[in-house]
């Protein structure tokens, strides 16, 4: 087996083991919380905990599949990004967001500011490298801002048209 294929297989093995350990660790906490050991991420009943677990399962599964695709086929794209794209495609095919996924996402959304700490530390740690490529960074930021504004405007127009069509239909 070539060196890169072996490395990809070893990386995938580690990623699968990490995700399975995460699922194992997340499995018992909400059940204990529902049985009276306190609340975990919000649900207060066993049914709410089961719904939360189902949603977390789908989110972690999409991330795992994205990481597998990254390790096996597309090493230039991050696995979590591929997983998020898989989740978007899945939700577009379904046409709706199920309650378990919505509940898990809204529970995790409370902790979103914690995800901004590592990039902030990275900016502080690599300030010299960023300063050396200052104009490239500024150019990328301006380009991404313009593309984001154009996309947001286009999406808003589509949503307004969709809402108008729904109002017209009895």
UniProtKB/TrEMBL annotation:
One of its GO terms (cellular component) is plasma membrane. It is found in: Cell membrane. It comes from the Bacteria. It is a multi-pass membrane protein. The keyword Phosphoprotein does not apply. The chain crosses the membrane at residues 80-97, 109-128, 134-156. GO terms for molecular function: hydrolase activity. Keywords: Cell membrane, Hydrolase, Membrane, Transmembrane, Transmembrane helix. PANTHER family: HOLIN-LIKE PROTEIN CIDA (PTHR33931:SF2), HOLIN-LIKE PROTEIN CIDA-RELATED (PTHR33931). This is Putative effector of murein hydrolase LrgA, UPF0299 family. It comes from Phytopseudomonas argentinensis. The lineage of its organism: Bacteria, Pseudomonadati, Pseudomonadota, Gammaproteobacteria, Pseudomonadales.
